[in-house]
Amino acid sequence: MGVVIPVEEPRHDGGSELEALSALVASDLSLVNSLILSRTGSDVQMIPEVANHLIESGGKRLRPLLTLAAAKLARYPGDGHIRLAAAVEFMHTATLLHDDVVDESEMRRGKASARMVWGNQASVLVGDFLLGQAFRMMVEVGSLPGLDILSTAATVIAEGEVMQLAAAKNIATTEDEYLAVISAKTAALFAAACEVGPALMGATEEQDAARSYGANLGIAFQLVDDALDYGGREAKLGKKVGDDFREGKITLPVIFAVRRGSPGEREFWKRTLEQGHADDSALETAIELLQRHGAIEETLARARHYGATACEALDVFPDSQAKRALLDVIDFVTARAH
Amino acid sequence: MGVVIPVEEPRHDGGSELEALSALVASDLSLVNSLILSRTGSDVQMIPEVANHLIESGGKRLRPLLTLAAAKLARYPGDGHIRLAAAVEFMHTATLLHDDVVDESEMRRGKASARMVWGNQASVLVGDFLLGQAFRMMVEVGSLPGLDILSTAATVIAEGEVMQLAAAKNIATTEDEYLAVISAKTAALFAAACEVGPALMGATEEQDAARSYGANLGIAFQLVDDALDYGGREAKLGKKVGDDFREGKITLPVIFAVRRGSPGEREFWKRTLEQGHADDSALETAIELLQRHGAIEETLARARHYGATACEALDVFPDSQAKRALLDVIDFVTARAH
């Protein structure tokens, strides 16, 4: 499509921000990866096949990295954060497996989605297995506050997904309604991933701050994702440009374009997103309309706003390597569109 | 179909056995029902709609009843068993919602399945929501052993379902393989439901006994279900006769008939169950073959064997109303075919 998405210059070279974080928690992450591998194991061969198809498909491990870094930020001295980080990744993977069934997606992270290879049935059931394993690992850590945070997140994520389902194909969706959806379906797991480390220390103030950082980072992450869907390059995203459009998803760029559009344009959005006439030529028109109304730019501005709030949330923590790494993640997330 | 399934006479009038159990834990069950109702609540309207469609559809609440009675059996004096019983019912309901998607079922408990009314997407996501709520309730009880038992069961159930998926449409499935599937997909939750009450008391020996009772009862329950699929009346089952057959499920009656059948008969099973030519006239032939080889009768005999083992497991407990009620449940389960 050749669409140029305007974003601020990142503080570092694009893409390097996660490397600082990865380096900081390298030994922990390697323990998490071993644990993930061993806990997808089962005598039922199809389970590790389906699980590892997705887990080894080059995901960034962003959420478990956040758990590890936030535990470091709170100076947690134990090893419970390893299992919690693996549990967070399993919860995320389970959500993706179920999402692919719900959205009827054909691709995920640049390769065929699990449901295309093994069927919807295996995707649903292996998702359930991973969710069960996630809870088992939390139980092994033995932290009831940690269990509380993550089980609540599991509920809220599902609530957000259902909310999105109920709002789907309705171009009258408001910005507030949309923010409620992504706060639940995306930001809740980011928030929980960041909160569980400090929660192991029982440090309430630090817990709240880490949670706020995660929640705001999660919203920024989702908004950038929404923008990328109308302009990212396939190789970068691992999904096709226009997937949200073809699925009739109402995201923030669309909400802005509908609000600012003429009656004729609203007819266009209704026809494509509500009535399903969203082919490739309609996608070109959609991108033109989004650009005309500055909808992508405005969405990215909102993302930077949430990024700034995430940044402020870390004020309660003294300077440390962990804090600097977490601040860099904000750049990584908001500059992904670059 | 008018097939008469031979079973032993129940000790009491058919169907009354659960009433004794219900009466014994009536006040607890009413608390569980209120809790279930309140915990399906959500601002997202579709969630209680989908959840209650199934939860209020006349399920027997057999699993939470077992949790309540087993807690009484172990003389547990607290109120944690109420939340655990509700959690067990939510886990069961989540499994049913996901099963309907996996099996593409059109009916459940005599009415349209949730996925036929609200779609596969809502069934998957509301199942996830209920699973999350189940874990939240367990966390509220604060018993790590209880959490361990139920989270492990969640994993094992999913494993059993995937095992069944992998074995589906394969008439070479052995009795042992089939028992491994139902031990996981059905009996694991019965076992966990019975074990969590005594686990709240930390009484290891009683815990093991209650678990063994539940596991054996669960296998008996599933075997009777399998037999009923080839001969129960629709009104009684809430599903159509022959559902398993039409879905190509290999159950114990079929395994017996295949093993005892002629080469020509094995061709019949291959054509219907493996290759999907399972229409109503094929169902009549299937039932004839099952009867010719005594396959239904043999399956019910196996169910009674597991029932007897469940009975023996309770030997460690002194006589009590709770024990007598749990013994009656075995009759209820094995005499359902009557």
Automatic annotation (TrEMBL), chains A, B:
Q: Which residues form the signal peptide?
A: none
One Pfam entry name = polyprenyl_synt
Q: Does the keyword Hydrolase apply?
A: no
Question: Which PANTHER family has this protein been placed in?
Answer: ALL TRANS-POLYPRENYL-DIPHOSPHATE SYNTHASE PDSS1, GERANYLGERANYL PYROPHOSPHATE SYNTHASE
The cross-references to SUPFAM superfamilies, in alphabetical order and at most eight, read: Terpenoid synthases
For activity, the cofactor(s) needed are: Mg(2+)
The answer to whether keyword Magnesium applies is: yes
Q: Which family does it belong to?
A: Belongs to the FPP/GGPP synthase family.
Keyword terms, alphabetized: Magnesium, Metal-binding, Transferase
| CDD domains found in the cross-reference section | Trans_IPPS_HT
Protein name according to UniProt: Polyprenyl synthetase family protein
Cite the Gene3D superfamilies for this sequence.
Answer: Farnesyl Diphosphate Synthase
